[in-house]
Amino acid sequence: MTFCLSILLKSGIVGLSDTRITSGNETTRAKKTFVLNRNKHSLYIMTAGLRSIRDKAITYFTEVLEEQDKEFNKLYKAVNAFAVQMRRVKEEDHKSLVESGLKFNLSAIVGGQLENDKESKVFMLYPEGNWIEVTQATPYIIIGNTGYGKPILDRSIKFESDIKFALKSAFLSFDGTYISSNDVDYPIDIVVYRNNSYQLIEHRFEKNDLQDISQVWREKIANAVDELPENWMNNILDKINGQKSV
Question: Cα 130 to chain center, whole Å?
């Protein structure tokens, strides 16, 4: 499984991806974020799904960028180009995957800003190659293991949140997934983009880098639970206290 997250902000984008790859009983590490920084062309692609499909699609897309990069002046055009390569890989490999008991399950997040985009954009691509754009109403998207990391984002992230706040929330979303699931793992790769900078920033964190933060969060949760109002429990507690010992 995978954990890839992108948060769209008024000021830019924050993204996070894990690096765990599972193949049968074997686990390895591999980067799941492809980054392009060129003159007024900054984009990244995060992927979830079979590694072989991902590598092939990214290779094809890289070749397209080398030949046609100047034709992409808005991010959605680059997204469409990557979707074409996803469909190309599906056409080439779908039959053999099915015969091997597998399925074509590549999905992707594409974020960034190209020269004619007024601000940064984030898109999610489905395995079929169709896509949706992330909007201010729900300014984040997760692919892969989506369940455990969503609650913290629903309660904390707004389009107006600043990059520092979004970085904290992104890590806590990953941390909740990491604690509750065994199919995502460190190290994690962070990408940050500030609107109109045309420069994606990348950074990798190992587990040891963030263990203290995870422990602080765990203690804060326990303390917050302990400090919650208790009046609503009185009827239950009264019944418990009124029970006769057997």
Answer: 18
Burial of 44 per CB tally in 10 Å (0-12, 13-18, 19+): buried
* CA–CA distance, 153 with 179 (Å, rounded to integer): 16
Q: What is the pTM of this model?
A: 0.94
CATH code for the domain defined by 3-208: 3.60.20.10
User: CA of 159: how far to CAs of 14, 133, 166, 177, 226, in Å?
Assistant: 11, 14, 10, 22, 31
What are the pLDDT digits (tens) for 174-223? 999 999 998 999 999 999 999 999 999 999 999 999 999 999 999 999 99
pLDDT in tens, 179-190: 999 899 999 999
Question: Which is it for the CA torsion 21, 175, 148, 82, positive or negative?
Answer: negative
Cα Dmax for the chain = 81
Q: What are phi and psi of 212, to 5 degrees?
A: -65, -40
